[in-house]
Amino acid sequence: MTPLSQLAILLIILSGLAHSIWNLFTKRSINKNVFLWYCQLAAIVIFLPLVLVELPTINKVSIEGWLLIASSMLLHGVYVLLLAKAYTIGDL
Questions:
Q1: Three-class SS of residue 62?
Q2: Contact 35, 25 (CB under 8 A)
Q3: H helix or E strand, kind and range, residue 74
Q4: Which residues have C-beta within 8 Å of that of residue 69, sequence separation ≥ 6?
Q5: E strands along the chain, which residues?
Q6: CB-side exposure of 83: number of CA atoms within 13 Å?
Q7: How many secondary structure helices (H) and strands (E) does the chain include?
Q8: Residue range 74-88: average pLDDT?
């Protein structure tokens, strides 16, 4: 097995672990909406430097690309709301 494939497997395992811990914290939180939106805020803070690095290439994005980005953001917001509601109603 190559070092690159070992790294890929390790990243998959760590991703699954982080996801299960995040789900546990979400389920145990008192206000699931607030917790999930703070998770989104943390993701924005973490990934904002990467966006700033890519800003010089922003003029290469077409109108259709911007519409897809906006649609993705809207759908992700709806997903967070529905996920919080699902965790409030019952176990997943």
A1: coil
A2: yes
A3: helix 63-89
A4: 61
A5: none
A6: 18
A7: 3, 0
A8: 91
User: Any idea where the domains of the chain sit in the sequence?
Assistant: 3-89
Contact at 8 Å (CB) between 60 and 66?
A: no
Q: What's the full length of the chain, in residues?
A: 92
The C-alpha atoms of residue 92 and residue 69 are separated, in whole angstroms, by: 29
pLDDT tens for each residue of 40-65: 999 999 999 998 898 888 888 889 99
Q: Are 26 and 80 in contact (CB under 8 A)?
A: no
Q: What are phi and psi of 18, to 5 degrees?
A: -60, -40
Give the orientation angle of helix 3-28 with respect to helix 32-54, to 10 degrees.
150
Q: What is the pTM of this model?
A: 0.72
